[in-house]
Design goal:
- The protein is 48% helix and 10% strand.
- It is of the alpha+beta class.
- The protein is elongated and about 65 Å long.
């Protein structure tokens, strides 16, 4: 059975690790605020999301937003502007809280009461690889029935765990070809 790629791209192949594309797709499903945090509108949207209830405030504190209620009130009123560091903290807390809030909904949609979700794997791009080094890698699809560990790793923003889960739980179902799909050009699925 093949192992993980050690020198990916040595001969010119291009692709992205599968778990990164899955994380991007899950981020799209989460529906984050589109306006950047540097703009007042985007900042206030994130701040309102993080302070709309006591549960949201507690989750924001756990996620790293440790400013006082007085400071938040001044930011909302426009009396004070947040520093660059606080903007980064608000953004990180918003992403963490939003992922945690959306994870349960996404999990139910992806598992579909045990039926799972069809995932399409498009192979890596070999157009720059010299002909003798190219290998035949076909488009594949599989049905992922258990998304629990993947969504949990995504919600915790644990990239290493997501990579391990993606390789051990999902691509192993491809049989002996699983190593050919560690890097892919795209992954498609819906929720």
């Amino acid at each position: 059975m093949p192992e993980r790629s050690i020198e990916f791209g040595k001969f010119g192949a291009r692709g992205v690790k599968g778990h990164e594309l899955v994380a991007r797709q899950l981020d799209e499903f989460a529906g984050f605020v589109a306006t950047p945090v540097e703009q007042r509108r985007g900042f206030l949207a994130r701040l309102n999301y993080l302070t709309r209830s006591e549960h949201a405030r507690q989750a924001a504190r756990v996620a790293g937003l440790t400013v006082t209620d007085r400071t938040i009130k001044a930011w909302k009123a426009g009396e004070r502007a947040p520093s660059r560091r606080n903007l980064e903290r608000v953004e990180a807390a918003y992403l963490a809280v939003r992922r945690q809030n959306v994870a349960r909904y996404l999990l139910a949609r992806l598992n579909r009461q045990g039926r799972g979700t069809r995932v399409e794997l498009h192979p890596l791009v070999q157009s720059q690889v010299p002909r003798p080094h190219q290998r035949y890698v076909e488009y594949r699809h599989l049905n992922v029935r258990r998304w629990d560990r993947i969504v949990s790793a995504w919600a915790d923003n644990d990239i290493q765990r997501m990579d391990d889960v993606w390789v051990s739980d999902v691509t192993q179902d491809l049989g002996s070809q699983w190593g050919q799909y560690e890097y892919v050009s795209s992954i498609g699925f819906s929720a």
